[in-house]
Amino acid sequence: LSLFLAGGCDWHVRQEPREKPVPANQVVDFGELYDTHCSGCHGKDGQSGPAPPLNDPIFLAIVPDPELHRVIAEGRPGTLMPAWAESKGGALTDPQVDVLAKGIKERWQAAAAPAADIPPYAAPAGQAGGNRDAGARVFAMACAGCHGDDGRGGKVGAVNDRAFLELLSDQALRRFVITGRPDLDMPAFNKATPGRDEGFKPLTSAEVGDLVALLASWRGGGSPGEK
Ligand code: HEC
Ligand code: HEC
Predict the structure, then answer these.
(1) What Å distances lie between residue 128 and 14, 122, 171, CA to CA?
(2) HSE on the CB side for 129, CA within 13 Å?
(3) How many whole angstroms separate alpha carbon 120 and alpha carbon 111?
(4) For ligand 1, atom 1, which residue shows the shortest CA distance?
(5) Which residue lies with its CA nearest to atom 42 of ligand 1?
(6) How far is the CA of 48 from the centre of ligand 2 (A)?
(7) What is the number of the ligand closest to the CA of 136?
(8) What is the pLDDT of residues 131-174, one digit of tens each?
(9) What ligand has the least distance to the C-alpha of 177?
């Protein structure tokens, strides 16, 4: 069909522009691209889907633009996030990937400045790795009240679940610890709530890295796609 349209049939040209179906590779409307290709996993309006919410003020405050673009173009190997750029075997042209990467921030970034001292999106070079024993101590203080002592489920579901962790990259785990999942009532890095120790202090970047090391050890090691 796209060859047929690209071939330019002149009966087609004579119709009103509105009646022309827009070939899939010419669609550059953010809402249409998002609804067609992304909302099934990331949720209608960027929340409450199975995949990490994209409409999240903390996520949008910390994700670097080039990384947002790269993950859409190249996907996250070993996870359910596919590569979208044609050059990577995906369904979207480079301009369409650009529209999505820009549109996510334009549409959803909150006008208000988010909380200060948010740990960076990616673990800083000096903190790559993290320490799982330190992570276990942070987990007891900041997570176990809801997810259970060993993460196998308590007031809320288990996170110490290999099948679940095998589908998520370390980057996604880091991001969940930082942003929480406000759409599911999972608190962000800085929220003192029931389920966290009294005197809870916002998690530091290093503590987030230690938690990721702990969760990765429950998965059985390396991030999907890096193994
Ligand atoms: C106040 C309770 C609470 C605390 C404290 C809490 N969580 Fe959660 N968490 C939730 C809820 C609710 C969900 C939604 C899914 C469910 O019910 O298991 C969730 C989901 C998750 C998920 C899965 C996200 C997804 O999209 O499937 C991860 C990973 C997670 N939590 C890790 C942690 C870690 C690590 C900590 C400690 C830093 C923590 N949680 C602290 C309530 C909590
Ligand atoms: C089949 C499900 C699926 C579809 C469809 C999908 N994604 Fe994803 N996406 C995921 C999952 C799962 C992750 C988390 C992967 C990981 O790192 O573990 C993710 C991660 C991302 C991230 C990084 C989020 C973060 O926290 O760093 C971005 C940005 C993203 N997707 C954008 C998109 C866009 C834009 C589309 C549509 C063109 C799309 N995704 C379609 C499943 C999907």
Answers:
(1) 60, 9, 11
(2) 5
(3) 20
(4) 195
(5) 186
(6) 13
(7) 1
(8) 999 999 999 999 999 999 999 999 999 999 999 999 999 999 99
(9) 1
CB contact set of 221 (below 8 Å; sequence gap of 6+): 227
How many CA atoms are closer than 13 Å to the CA of 34, on its beta-carbon side?
22
* CA atoms of 58 and 52, how far apart (whole Å): 12
pLDDT digits (tens, 9 = 90+) for 88-147: 999 999 999 999 999 999 999 977 777 789 999 999 988 888 999 999 999 999 999 999
Q: With contact defined as beta carbons under 8 Å apart, do 170 and 220 qualify?
A: no
Query: The tokens 């090391």 sit on which residue?
Result: 213
Residue 77 tokens, joined: 């190997």
CA 146 – CA 186 distance, rounded (Å): 9
Query: Are 94 and 178 in contact, with CB atoms under 8 Å apart?
Result: no
Q: Which residue's CA is the closest to the ligand 2 atom numbered 40?
A: 38
Whether 36 contacts 96, CB under 8 Å = no
Counting every residue, how long is the chain? 227
